[in-house]
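ESCALATION

Customer reports they have been waiting on this structure for their group meeting. Please prioritize. Original submission:
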Amino acid sequence: MTTQFSVTLLIVMIIVPLYYSVVDSRITALSKPLLLVMWMPRAYSYREGRSLWRLGLASSAQLVFLSCLVVLTGVGASHAFQAPLRSIHLIYGVLLGIGEMGLSSFLCHVVVKAIMTLAPSWGPNSMQEWITIARGGWMREYLNALDKDADNVLCTTSWSGDVDIPGLKDLAKKYNDRFKEHMDSTSAGGFTAFSVLWDSLERAGAADRKKLRDAIAATSLKTGEKMYMQLRGAKFQPSGENSIAGGLVFTIKSKEWATVAPKEYAKTTAMWPKPKWGA
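Update from on-call: job pushed to the front of the queue and completed.
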C-alpha cells in the first residue's frame, strides 16, 4: 500500500508541472487557428475573441486533466464528500474567497502607497491616477475602459496609423480584414523588423550569418520601402541603434488617435491645458 501510494504521488508530482508548463500552453495556443476559421461578431476585436477561446479551451483542458487525476489516484465522490454538504460550508467558501480578494487588494494598496512615498518619481502621484492606469491597460483597452475620459490625453509612440506612409493604407486594410482590429505600433514594428530582414537577405544573397549581419549593419531603408513602417527610415550605428529613428506625439479624440507632433506629421492640434476628467 505504501509503495503504491509513493508511486502514485511521484507520478502526480511529475504530471502536474508537465501539464501546466507544456500541455496547457499548447492547448490554449490552438485558440488562434480556431478563431481565424470561426465566425465572430465584428463588435469584438481579434484579441477579445482570442481571449474567449483561450478561456474555453483552458477550462475544457482542466476538466480533462482533473478526470485523469481522479482515475490515476483512485479518488472517488465518496472521498471528496466524506460528510453531508451543508449550507455553512458554502458560506465559509464565499467568505474565504472574499477574504482572499480583500487581502490581494490590500497588498496592492500597500505596494502603491510605498512607491508613492519612497519613490514618487516612479509612478503617478495619486491613487486615482493609479486606478486609471490599472483600468487602462493596452491602448485599445485604455480607450474602451475610459471612453470619453480618454479624450485629449497625450501619448508618445514610434508609429501612428494616420501618418502618410507609402503603402500603409493598403497594408492597414489587409491587417484589419485579417485580424479584425486596427494596426498599432506593435504590429507596425513587426512589419518593420520583417522589412529589414527581407532587405538584408536580398543584399546578402545568402543566409550566411556573417554576410547577413554585415548586410543588416549596412541597412539604408526609407519609410514605406519594402513595408518599412517606422518614421524617417533606418540606418544603423555601430552600436546597433537606428540613427534616424523618430517618434510621435498623438492625442485621443472619440476613441481614435491623431498625431499632433512633429509638425510635418501633425493631423490636428493638442488641447492644452487638458480639461479635467469628467468636466
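Sent to customer with the following note: The mean pLDDT is 78.
Escalation resolved.
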